[in-house]
Specification:
Length: about 260
């Protein structure tokens, strides 16, 4: 049976086919060669306390329209100035209404690490991410074979980027560990059904070896959830909806950062 994730990935592949006609991988490789090195995001996420990866998110399959974000750079600067460790930028167009132009403008606006949040299924997208200034890429275990995961994880490191390897169940966690992931994100949202279960992190965290950076993703409603994840062993939380749909994103960031520091 086809899942939400399958449908998203099918759309991503169609859009990718158009972009690869417009810009070759060789062009991207030339652009990457001229860029300054990526920021070591893994090291930043390892810093003591709970880090916040704050997301620029206009819409989602689960909630539809979330926020009118006319100026992603301004929102990203607000996040960074309020204490976010890194910025996540959704670049998938069809369901999240994100673009690579969003990534460009956020990259130009902030000096903290930037995550290209998308559904990575080919090496081309990693070159594209780096060419557009990303320091972190997302690898969703559920949408990759073991060979793809290993190859793309290695390529991310060759390009100097941090790979955030995302899991949602025990089997995926084992596959991430076997692939040598040094940063694992536990997504509370099941990308096949869109259900959110906040106990997913506490269930899977014992399977993640010490020394691996642990990121709790999705469904963080505010400071209380972040504090609980910190107590359960999270090094970072990735938050989208709660930041973009609230009246005061800067205050929301400050509250989450303070809650993480105090737990
Ligand atoms: O957000 C969704 O509905 C979604 C659906 C299918 C695939 C991915 C999806 N979201 C991507 C994310 O990982 C989240 O944007 C991120 O973890 C932040 O989640 P939240 O704080 O719940 O907005």
């Amino acid at each position: 049976m086809s899942t939400v994730l399958d449908a998203i990935v099918a759309g991503v592949r169609e859009d990718l086919a158009v972009r690869t006609e417009q810009v070759s991988q060789s062009d991207l490789e030339r652009r990457v060669a001229d860029l300054p090195a990526a920021i070591d995001a893994e090291q930043r996420l390892r810093a003591p306390g709970l880090s916040l990866i704050a997301e620029v998110k206009r819409a989602s399959p689960s909630k539809g329209h979330l926020a009118e974000i006319a100026d992603p750079a301004s929102l990203a600067s607000t996040y960074a100035d309020a204490g976010a460790t890194a910025i996540s930028v959704l670049t998938e167009q069809r369901r999240f209404h994100g673009t690579l132009a969003d990534l460009d403008s956020v990259r130009a606006a902030v000096s903290v690490p930037v995550l290209r949040k998308d559904f990575m299924v080919t090496d081309y997208q990693l070159w594209e991410a780096r060419a557009h200034g990303a320091d972190i890429i997302l690898l969703i275990v559920a949408s990759l074979t073991d060979d793809e995961l290993a190859r793309m994880h290695a390529l991310a490191h060759e390009l100097g980027m941090t790979a955030l390897v995302e899991v949602h169940d025990e089997g995926e966690t084992q596959r991430a560990v076997d692939a040598g992931a040094s940063v694992i994100g536990v997504n509370a949202r099941n990308l096949k059904t869109l259900e959110v279960h906040r106990d997913t992190f506490s269930r899977l965290v014992p399977l993640i070896p010490p020394g691996v950076v642990k990121v709790a993703e999705s469904g963080v409603a505010g400071a209380a959830d972040a504090a609980l994840y910190a107590v359960q062993g999270a090094d970072a939380v990735l938050v989208g909806e709660a930041l973009v749909s609230g009246a005061d994103p800067a205050a929301a960031v400050r509250e989450i950062v303070a809650a993480g520091a105090g737990s």
